[in-house]
Amino acid sequence: MTVREISETEHLAFVRAQRSTSFLQTPAWGKVKSEWRRQSIGWFEDGGTEPVGAALVLYRQLPKVRRYLAYLPEGPVVDWTDEDLGAWLRPLAAHVKGHGAFGVRIGPPVVTRRWDAATIKEGIAADGVRRLGELAPTERDGTGARVVTQLRELGWRSQAVAGGFAAGQPQHVFQVPLAGRSEDDVLAGMNQQWRRNIKKAAKAGVEVTSTSSAEGILEQLRAFHDLYVHTAERDRFTPRPLSYFRTMVEALAAEEPDRITLHLARHEGDLVAATIAIRVGAHAWYSYGASSTEKRDVRGSNAVQWAMMRAAIAAGADVYDLRGITETLDPDDPHVGLIQFKVGTGGEAVELVGEWDLPLVKPLYKAFELYMKRRG
């Protein structure tokens, strides 16, 4: 197996041939992360001309030296069921080291455990249960366990952060399975409160409009961003600037006509909720959301989530992904509200393998670790 740089056209063709690939592993995402140097790479078997694996590599420069951390968010897209992962990862390490990397970070898109909504609900209500990992999972994935073992044996280091969100991509996400399910099936799987809120929004006259064209999204992006900033002030997080969303819309919409969609929920002309959804093949994500503090009783957030789920079902998606959650099930932890909201969809908590680092130049990698600790 060899690894070499490929064109963005070759990379996109490989992504299109997959049932599911993270949007963070599309060529367009490299354009969104303009502060990183981007590169599309492919894996080739001996004598082969078509890639059997692909990845977006983002190179982040270490301060004051021309060396880089090579980052493959939620990638690479390779055969993670292979019992010899070294055959894939060794040429990756050699390639990025040849392009100035002192270390490489990957995020295998591989599941280790799942917990269904009923199990999580019981865990939140139970005395003495404080974390998701303390609950017996509904399902364990043998491939995920094997990947973790192989990565350790190959010298990779887990970057998992206990309890909260990691600095990179989340290890725990919440997903609603859609494969083989109709709208009625998904609606029936929700808890009573979610179904009631969706009906309440419809009865109150909440209307959700959606647009996937770059022009249409950009025309209404200011309205989304104003509501998003309002949400950030209320919920105390740091919002991204409007320019970031413009770049994201322009890059993703140019790659595929239905890659990114803006959903706006209005009540009597007032914007009460807004979301950005992304889809690659059969995987649909809820990426960003915003909601008004006023008129919360009309349940715009439930209405817009349901609109996104219906769009994902109509597009033939296998999964609707509500992205990151923390491990906490502690009723006194402010983060528990996030998982409680998502549990109402009737989906499942999913634990991934997480992000892993391989130091390539150990003194520089150690300096990078110290730099990151000082930053926060």
Determine the number of helices (DSSP H or I, runs of at least 4 residues): 12
Instruction: Give the overall shape, derived from the CA principal axes.
Output: globular
| Fourth-tier CATH superfamily name of the largest domain | Gcn5-related N-acetyltransferase (GNAT)
Structurally, the number of domains stands at 2
Quickly give the structural class. alpha+beta
Beta-strand segment tally: 16
Estimate the helix proportion, in percent: 25-40%
The CATH class of the largest domain is: Alpha Beta
Q: What share of the residues does DSSP label as strand, in percent?
A: 25-35%
Average pLDDT, all residues: 94
What is the string of SSEs from the N terminus onward? EHHEEEHEEHEHEEHHEHHEEEHEHEEH
Spans of at least 5 consecutive residues whose pLDDT stays below 50 are: none
Classify the fold: give the CATH topology of the largest domain.
Aminopeptidase
CATH architecture descriptor name of the largest domain: 3-Layer(aba) Sandwich
Placed side by side, the strands forming the largest sheet appear as 7-6-15-9-14-13-12-11-10
What does the main sheet amount to?
9 strands, mixed
Distance between the termini: 39 Å
Rg, rounded, reads 21 Å
Keywords:
single chain; 376 residues; alpha+beta; Aminopeptidase; 7-stranded mixed β-sheet; 12 helices; globular
Spell out the blueprint of helices and strands.
Blueprint (H helix, E strand, L loop, with lengths): L1 E4 L2 H9 L10 H6 L4 E8 L8 E9 L6 E5 L13 H13 L2 E6 L4 E6 H9 L13 E2 L1 H12 L3 E2 L13 E6 L5 H7 L2 H13 L2 E5 L2 H22 L6 H14 L4 E8 L2 E11 L2 E9 L8 H15 L4 E6 L11 H8 L4 E5 L3 E4 L2 H14 L1
Helix pairs in contact: 7-10, 8-9
